[in-house]
Design goal:
The structure is a single chain. The chain is α+β, with helices and mostly antiparallel strands. Helices cover 54% and strands 19% of the residues.
Length: 167
C-alpha cells in the first residue's frame, strides 16, 4: 500500500476517533443515551487500533511480499501469514471479491495454520474464512505490482518446486 494512501487512512481514523470521543464525552455529560456512549467507545477502540497499524506500516521498510525458493513471505496486511512454504500449499488461485482482485492460497492443512495464529488475528481469520474460501488472501490494494504478475510468479515458482520434488 502506498504511503499516500496510508496517510489518508490514518487521517480518516483520526476523524472517527474524534467523533467517537465526542459521542462518549456527550454521553458522560448526559446529553446522549447509552447507545451513543457505546458507539463512541467502539469507534475510539476500533479506529485507534487501525491508526496504530497504519502508523506502524508507514515506518515499516520490509517488503509486503517476497516470493523465493522457500515459499511466499506475506507481510501485506494485518492478517499477513509470514512465511508459507511451498510444501504447505495445496492451490493458488486468482479471484475477485467485491470488485477487489485477490490471490487466494489454499493450504494442505488449514486447521494447523489457524491453530498457529493468536488472539484477535485468529478471530479475524475465522471471520475472513466465512467470506472467502482460501485461508490466506493477498489483496491487490496492499501491493504496488499488478496482482496478475505476482500470481504468475507464484505459479511459476510453485510449479518449479513441485517439479523439483518429483526429480
Amino acid at each position: 500500500m502506498g504511503k499516500g494512501k496510508l496517510w489518508l487512512m490514518s487521517f480518516g481514523c483520526l476523524i472517527f476517533i474524534a467523533i467517537g470521543g465526542w459521542f462518549f464525552a456527550e454521553y458522560l455529560n448526559g446529553n446522549l443515551i447509552l447507545a451513543y456512549g457505546i458507539v463512541g467507545i467502539c469507534c475510539v477502540m476500533l479506529f485507534g487500533a487501525c491508526l496504530v497499524y497504519f502508523i506502524r506500516k508507514l515506518f515499516d521498510r520490509s517488503p509486503a511480499l517476497v516470493i523465493d525458493y522457500d515459499g511466499i513471505l506475506d507481510n501485506s496486511s494485518y492478517l499477513a501469514t509470514g512465511l508459507v512454504r511451498w510444501e504447505n500449499i495445496q492451490q493458488i488461485e486468482l479471484y475477485q471479491l467485491a470488485g477487489q482482485k485477490m490471490i487466494g492460497i489454499q493450504l494442505k492443512e488449514p486447521e494447523a495454520y489457524l491453530e498457529s495464529q493468536r488472539g484477535l488475528k485468529r478471530q479475524l481469520i475465522k471471520i475472513n474464512q466465512g467470506m472467502v474460501q482460501a485461508p490466506i488472501n493477498i489483496a491487490q490494494s496492499a501491493l504496488r505490482m499488478p496482482l496478475a504478475q505476482i500470481y504468475e510468479e507464484m505459479m511459476m515458482r510453485w510449479h518449479s518446486y513441485q517439479g523439483s520434488r518429483l526429480s
